Amino acid sequence: MKNLRVYLIASLVVVVLLVGTGFLLTSGKAIGQPLFGKSYSEGELKNYVSSVLRQQLNGVSCQPVDTDANGYVSCDYTTVAEPNVTRSIECSAWGLQGFLNRGCKARSILPVR
To answer: Which residues cross the membrane (predicted)?
Structure first.
């Protein structure tokens, strides 16, 4: 009987952790992105520029919410070497897709008709 009680408590803890984690990740767009999205994406951009482009950032600005649901948000940045040239890029957003994507990529530009 004692082992059953321990098993039930452990099972309940595991279920609560799984449901809680799933809720936080899937509700990221509605709750988490407005709260954590901007700082998360700007951190991804800083890592990308320093490690891949090997440049030092001068200014950074990222959107807090992924409006097109592709797991990335739009960011603009300038570097110390060229402070007057603003570059655009997309970096991973806070949420399930953002955790799967990681890093940054060139911004997709659709042709205008």
So the answer is: 6-25
Number of H helices, E strands in the chain: 3, 4
3-state SS assignment for residue 18: helix
Q: Where do the domains of the chain lie? A: 2-105
The pTM for the full model equals 0.65
Six token digits for residue 36 = 């954590």
Q: Could you report the per-residue pLDDT of 11-33, keeping only the tens digit for each?
A: 888 888 887 776 666 655 566 66
Contact present, 56 and 50 (Cβ < 8 Å): yes
Give yes or no for a contact between 44 and 73, defined as CB atoms under 8 angstroms apart.
no
User: Structure tokens of 33?
Assistant: 């992105």
pLDDT 10s digits, 57-110: 999 999 888 888 788 889 999 999 999 999 999 998 877 666 677 889 887 666
* Residues in a beta bridge with 77: 60, 87
Query: Is the Cβ–Cβ distance between 58 and 68 less than 8 Å?
Result: no
**Considering Cα of 53, then 54, then 57, then 61, what sign does the dihedral take?**
positive
